[in-house]
Inverse folding.
């Protein structure tokens, strides 16, 4: 891809900052679903399966929106290549703001179906953002550093997911709760209206920022066979990888509060559990900041080590300042940070190898979650977050690597696979409602991480082509 505005190396810092702000906000709004699930479960007296319709509608929108995009791009031409990334990003933001605004009538009439409809519209908006913004970040520089850049922006996405359980939980379960802390149907009205306003402000900011534009190279405009992006095996397998990753991560986050409320685990209240949920997402933030450094091919090993240790300490301190937990309650997480650092160095800054190592660790942590009780099980499931960190960005960049003019089309297929966030939690909810119970239902995401382990091994053994890099 070429920057059409200049033949020289463009300055990417300002547009990267602008898009990073957007990543933060959509991370925040996505993680709010983990607060909505127990809130709506109590408000409407739902089963585990019924409450997972929250994720089904939200992430189901990703599938339908991405499917529509793929079909249009396949038969009528890629929409992003026509309108540009900037207009695509703004369109996604406006649609997401509309979804947030629809929470006002949903809360006013207190109808579960209206909440689900609002989540569907919100999910459609974020679908457009996923297709445009992720691919755009991968184009803002050399392709061999795409994983590093995407990990950095995803880290700020995780900052949003870290803050959301604490701030969102306080707003819904405490500040806007009914008298005596009772669940109020109106508790989501003002918060989501405020989120809509923030999205509009971000859209205005993106509109005013000059973003580099990318168009296909001339040689990429030639006619090719009818398979399009699907002719690339790394993409086909990557689609399943994204399905499994998002499905596993979302399922674990969705059941986290309910899991910690179990007497056999910790018997914690929602107001305390939301802080531990914030640690789960905060772990992903720590890992993504570390990944941005580890996967940077231009840094020396000694500089990487010093930078990663400093970042680990700094970001852990940030998470500590956000959550309402004592140091003794959080100290167990230091063990996972050290293990994470070791895993990065064993992976030797290779995206595929690092992905396989992290997936293997998460399989072991999930098995510990299933076969142990008490705080051992709780700590194990919380540790999964930090090893989820680089999975989306690494699977994504491995999947679109070498796709050339099919990058946006391939991106739409990968975003379509976010459907895993709709299906896997629903499956785990079904299992949790059976005699197997919530605790043992965590066997479901084990299969997700086993596949990711396979994909990481596959890509580490296959030398992927490098085409269509931004210049």
């Amino acid at each position: 891809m070429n920057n059409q505005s200049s033949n020289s190396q463009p300055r990417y810092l300002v547009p990267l900052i602008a898009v990073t702000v957007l990543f933060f906000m959509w991370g925040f709004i996505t993680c709010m679903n983990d607060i909505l699930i127990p809130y709506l479960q109590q408000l409407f007296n739902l089963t585990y399966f019924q409450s997972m319709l929250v994720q089904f509608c939200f992430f189901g929108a990703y599938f339908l929106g991405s499917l529509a995009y793929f079909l249009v791009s396949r038969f009528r031409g890629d929409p992003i290549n026509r309108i540009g990334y900037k207009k695509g990003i703004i369109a996604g933001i406006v649609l997401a703001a509309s979804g947030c605004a629809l929470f006002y009538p949903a809360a006013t009439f207190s109808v579960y179906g209206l909440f689900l409809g609002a989540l569907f519209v919100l999910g459609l908006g974020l679908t457009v953002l996923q297709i445009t913004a992720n691919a755009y970040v991968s184009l803002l520089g050399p392709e061999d550093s795409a994983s590093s850049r995407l990990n950095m922006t995803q880290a700020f996405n995780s900052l949003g997911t870290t803050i959301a359980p604490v701030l969102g939980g306080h707003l819904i379960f405490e500040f806007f709760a009914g008298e005596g802390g009772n669940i109020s149907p109106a508790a989501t009205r003002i918060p989501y209206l405020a989120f809509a306003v923030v999205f509009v402000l971000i859209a205005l900011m993106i509109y005013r920022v000059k973003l580099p534009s990318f168009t296909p190279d001339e040689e990429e405009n030639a006619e090719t066979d009818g398979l399009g992006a699907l002719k690339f095996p790394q993409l086909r397998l990557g689609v399943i990888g994204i399905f499994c990753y998002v499905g596993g991560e979302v399922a674990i986050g969705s059941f986290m509060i309910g899991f910690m409320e179990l007497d056999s685990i910790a018997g914690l209240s929602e107001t305390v559990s939301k802080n531990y949920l914030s640690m789960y997402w905060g772990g992903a933030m720590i890992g993504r900041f570390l990944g941005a450094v580890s996967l940077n091919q231009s840094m020396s090993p000694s500089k990487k080590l010093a930078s990663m240790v400093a970042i680990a300490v700094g970001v852990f301190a940030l998470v500590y300042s956000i959550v309402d937990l004592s140091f003794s309650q959080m100290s167990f997480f230091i063990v996972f940070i050290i293990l994470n650092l070791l895993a990065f160095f064993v992976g030797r800054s290779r995206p595929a190898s690092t992905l396989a190592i992290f997936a293997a660790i998460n399989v072991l942590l999930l098995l510990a979650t299933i076969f142990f009780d008490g705080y051992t099980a709780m700590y194990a499931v919380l540790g999964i977050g930090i090893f989820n960190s680089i999975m989306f960005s690494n699977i994504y960049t491995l999947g679109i690597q070498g796709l050339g003019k099919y990058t946006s089309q391939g991106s739409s297929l990968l975003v379509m696979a976010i459907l895993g966030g709709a299906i896997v939690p629903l499956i785990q909810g079904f299992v949790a409602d059976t005699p197997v119970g919530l605790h043992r239902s965590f066997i479901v995401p084990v299969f997700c991480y086993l596949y990711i382990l396979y994909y990481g091994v596959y890509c580490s053994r296959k030398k992927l082509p490098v085409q269509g890099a931004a210049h």
About this structure: The two ends are 7 Å apart (CA to CA). Residues 1-9, 216-224, 466-471 have pLDDT under 50 and may be disordered. The domain at 10-213+227-461 is CATH 1.20.1250.20 (Growth Hormone; Chain: A;). The chain is about 75% helix and 0% strand.
